[in-house]
Amino acid sequence: MSMSETLELVSANRSFGGWHKRYRHYSRALDCDMEFAVYLPPQAESERVPLLWWLSGLTCNDENFMQKAGAQRIAAELGIAIVCPDTSPRGTDLPGEHDSYDLGSGAGFYVNATQAPWKPHYRMYDYIVEELPSVVRQHFPVNGRESISGHSMGGHGALILALRHPGRFSSVSAFSPIVNPMNCPWGQKAFTSYLGEDQSTWRQYDACELVANGASRQRLFIDQGEADQFLEEQLKPERLEAVCDAHDHPLTLRRQPGYDHSYFFIASFIEEHLRYHAEHLMKS
């Protein structure tokens, strides 16, 4: 086996009859060691199961969702595995990598960087689309049916991956996603650093642009808290709503009164998202 196919078990915890496990492996796409988490429901001990990818937000790693969202109980009932990757390369010690929470470590934005010093390592798009799925399919009892979800920066990641790969995911959902990164401070900072000043190269990583260009017809399911502290400056769901309306793209956007940007919000509605994905994953 090559290095990229070798997994090192970091930890294992029994959970609702299944297993939450963390693994470390060398990533060729990112040229560094990476960790990811997987929840295997009880059904995985006797059969192959469908898979939900969860992409996390700024400052997070593979642990936040698995520890805070409370997803395992419902995943165990539904027989769905969950894989939670990290949000950026780690340990590369690039200049500026640790200077701010919204660029560098913990802030990969699910793009393939083209600019120095990020280009050799910050290739999270390839890692999530190609390399890690290959590792997961090789090592775990999954049946090839996949859905994807995420939060904030990870919601952005889930939307662009689903839109750019029609048919790849049975369903897609997001909590508080960055829907128009080309036109918000978080996205502009990251895209300028990772992709350069030419904004034409940014469009492939912007959900609003992808919908406008007819990249896919897949229904988008989004929950957004109305008390989210980042709602007006960074998230701007009304922009995605407008472009979906203009292009007749199927969208379910639920505005949830009183909810903020935190995992309290995610934990409150994760069951509905998991059941939504299960309906699509179980279709023949």
Keywords:
284 residues; AB_hydrolase_fold; hydrolase; 9 helices; six-stranded mixed sheet; three-stranded parallel sheet; alpha/beta
Radius of gyration: 18 Å
Counting DSSP H or I runs of 4 or more residues, the number of helices is 9
Order of helices and strands: EEEEHHEHEHEHHEHHEH
| Largest sheet entry | 6 strands, mixed
DSSP summary, beta strand count: 9
Percent range of helical residues: 25-40%
- Tell me the strand percentage band: 15-25%
Largest sheet strand order: 1-2-3-5-4-6
Low-confidence stretches: none
* Mean pLDDT reading: 96
Q: How far from one another are the termini?
A: 34 Å
Helix-and-strand structural type: alpha/beta
Silhouette: globular
Notes on the structure:
The chain has 284 residues and is α/β, with parallel strands linked by helices. It has nine helices and nine strands. It has a six-stranded mixed sheet, with helices on both faces. Strands 7-8-9 form a three-stranded parallel sheet, sandwiched between helices.
